[in-house]
Design brief:
Length: 242
């Protein structure tokens, strides 16, 4: 579905991505983990057209989108829930969700999208008339993900969905990520909580200072001593993977 080949992105003299390659197949949850500054969010910015690749390519459903404009990338079926949620605080929950469907014109399909989001996030339905700025952090994260789903994306990009959330809310968000995937949405997950990310993903890539250091089956990487030592708190780390 998504294929990145030898992607290089620079900010002036700083090489943020140094020739990374990865693939996301239809129906998967793929996670990209790594420490702060590793290049995770830059990868998503390149996919969505917010930063330009210096070299390399990004293909989505067989089409080269490396230099496509962001609105054209969204219209092709990619949507993002950004780091920090970035909800519109003065708008209501319902209005925030409507902005996620701005590329869609069919009223019936938009109503179906609302129904899907409210089924996934009943708390948002309870607060549909409430301004987003008065929501809790967990509710704002639900809203950010729900807004991204309003365009009915083929590929959903999630940038640090657990950031700043209490442990019980982190569990809930990852359960919702699994539910969204089971409904048929392919997901590329960027996450610092490597333990949780590897617990829900099918495959994983570990990014270190702009390069892919490890990649493979998420279950395998969850047990890899190198990954466990660097990202999972050592050999005794626990996961929710059964």
């Amino acid at each position: 579905m998504l294929k990145i080949d030898n992607l290089v992105v620079s900010y002036g003299p700083i090489n943020a991505l140094k020739g990374i390659s990865l693939e996301v197949r239809q129906g998967e949850i793929v996670t990209l983990i790594g420490s702060n500054g590793a290049g995770k969010s830059t990868t998503l910015s390149a996919i969505t057209g917010l930063v330009r690749a210096q070299s390399g390519s990004i293909r989505f459903l067989g089409e080269d989108i490396t230099r496509a404009a962001p609105h054209r990338i969204i219209s092709r079926g990619i949507s993002i829930s950004p780091e920090g949620r970035e909800v519109f605080p003065a708008l209501t929950v319902h209005e925030n969700l409507r902005l996620g469907a701005y590329t869609r014109k069919d009223k019936a399909s938009i109503e179906q999208a609302y129904e899907r989001v409210y089924d996934l996030f009943p708390r948002l339905k309870e607060r549909m008339g409430q301004t987003a700025g008065t929501l809790s952090g967990g509710e704002q994260q639900m809203l950010a993900i729900g807004r991204a789903l309003m365009s009915e994306p083929k590929l959903l990009l999630l940038d640090e969905p657990s950031m700043g959330l209490a442990p019980n809310l982190v569990l809930m968000i990852f359960e919702l990520i699994e539910s969204i995937n089971k409904q048929g949405t392919t997901i590329l997950l960027i996450e610092q909580n490597a333990n949780m990310a590897l617990s829900v993903a099918n495959r994983a890539f570990v990014l270190e200072t702009g390069r892919i250091a490890f990649s493979g089956d998420a279950r395998t990487l969850l047990q890899d001593d190198r990954v466990r030592s660097a990202y999972l708190g050592g050999k005794g780390a626990q996961s929710r993977r059964k």
